[in-house]
């Protein structure tokens, strides 16, 4: 993660100011960047006619923009270029919070909600560098080893960049918050940590034929 | 997971028919249910004015409905009851797919996209049973041990149920699909499995005071 924007605090807007559980809200750019950098998936909300549609895709970051990509001809890419508002939400799940009362059960999580309109990354050098950064998110340094996109592949792929400007993070961490009168109840309370773990790599069987 | 609907196939609609990578589309109710049952989080897309908003929350299932809950006074719960269309997307990440070409890198995943309008679960017995099912998703049998919601907590919590009707699943699994002319390139190709793993439970430190 770059540190160029550490210390930067984004200005909350009516759409990104955390209302409920406002103590969980964060507007620090570094905190927002770290969540985007760690997440293998984000969810893009856009309008298709009058219907909100939510589609998962891999987010990555270059500087102060959140990038996504897709087939140039896909509905998501076309709708996102129509000029309407869109929302990108990134969520990392850190654990189940088990309380003594049913009501205080919760989830530990880190999330980012970002509003905006993306720009199309069309200049070839910038687009190639952006796609290299995506491959390097999957495995650092990998873009130097994989066969780069040819002209046809590059054309078939659209890269969109959202400014990380109207955005906020929301974080819950730590133990349950039971009511004082429930603390003596004979039920286990605490956190079951959850994390996305990489397993043993599975080589492509086609390589062994 | 109940098996009452195994074998049921949902009718694709123009909104749920998989267009891109259509071979990844699935309309089998049991496949859709299994993804919802496993997921700790879903993303709800709804309209706030003309802006699509995407919010993460825990999904669970009772029969053929996907349930969510929230503070009765929250924006999400209020907007979802306004009568407009909404979209619920559930995504499980199963692995990074590392190809020989940058273009064929991918993600193994299982996702569900569901369109519809939720109903408010308001009848007390049904609402309590629904919230018990949520606690039991976190830890089977736990609803019998945790202190049940009192009248005030029950009133402060809204439960919404989406019919699992206009829904489809999309699944990618298996190795990369490189082009034949790239198979000889000297770059490792295969899958790095990813899974959400539970760690050692951390007891609430407040219990030890």
TrEMBL record, chains A, B:
<protein>
    <submittedName>
        <fullName>Pyridoxamine 5'-phosphate oxidase family protein</fullName>
    </submittedName>
</protein>
<dbReference type="InterPro" id="IPR012349">
    <property type="entry name" value="Split_barrel_FMN-bd"/>
</dbReference>
<dbReference type="InterPro" id="IPR024747">
    <property type="entry name" value="Pyridox_Oxase-rel"/>
</dbReference>
<dbReference type="Pfam" id="PF12900">
    <property type="entry name" value="Pyridox_ox_2"/>
</dbReference>
